[in-house]
Amino acid sequence: MARSIRIEIDDKGIVKVDFSGYAGDSCLQDEAKLRQILEEMGLQMEVQAERMKPERFSEPLVEEIKHRRQG
Are 28 and 48 a contacting pair, CB within 8 Å? Predict the structure, then answer.
């Protein structure tokens, strides 16, 4: 599945960002990059709600956690 980032801004300036096609915590890395780019443009965002999708707990991440526990 291809990665994509969907950004919606309503008429009140509320921003909703949806990361699709990400596995594990890789979406958090791209979220940080997006924040940095917006900050460089003079835009500040405050997270009011965050919802992790099931993809975050994909098989590679589960295997990494198991490996670390057995470490």
Answer: no
Tokens 């965050």 belong to residue: 50
Q: What is the pLDDT of residues 2-61, one digit of tens each?
A: 889 998 988 988 888 898 888 777 888 888 998 899 899 998 878 888 787 776 665 554
The SS3 call for residue 71 is coil
Contact 8, 16 (CB under 8 A): yes
Backbone torsion region of residue 14, taken as left when φ is above 0, otherwise alpha when ψ lies between -120 and 50, otherwise beta: beta
Whether this model's pTM surpasses 0.85: no
Give the C-alpha separation, 52 to 41, whole Å.
27
Which candidate, 71, 48, 22, 1, places its Cα nearest to that of 30? 22
